[in-house]
Amino acid sequence: MALPLHRAAQAGGPVLLQGPRSSGKTTLLQREFPGHTYVALDDPTDRGRARAAPAAFLARLRGPSIVDDLHRAPELIAELATWTGPLLLASSRRITLPFPTLCLYPPT
Questions:
Q1: Given its phi and psi angles, is residue 52 left (phi above 0), alpha (psi -120 to 50 degrees) or beta?
Q2: What is the rounded distance in angstroms from the CA atom of residue 44 to the CA atom of residue 7?
Q3: What pTM, to 2 d.p., does this model score?
Q4: Disulfide: which of 4, 18, 29, 68 matches 40 by Cβ 3.0-4.6 Å?
Q5: Helix, strand or coil for residue 52?
């Protein structure tokens, strides 16, 4: 999954990685993109900022970033539809966005 993920990220726009809990989304993103800023929306402070002011939250992300648990701040979804910067997103719930989406499945 690392190769398709890197190919999708090379375009410079957002990429969504979906899959069930504990399928390895966070581990994969952090291992393959160690220089990216990591933001977890399971943190109440970050989640509150993302939900209250989605545009301001995204504007604060300087440079390539990973936003984990996107489904916890659904207010970001409308804002992301027009986002053009480098951004990697992870969600354990199915989200439809107009950019590359990759899916992980639980280990068998």
A1: alpha
A2: 32
A3: 0.91
A4: 68
A5: helix
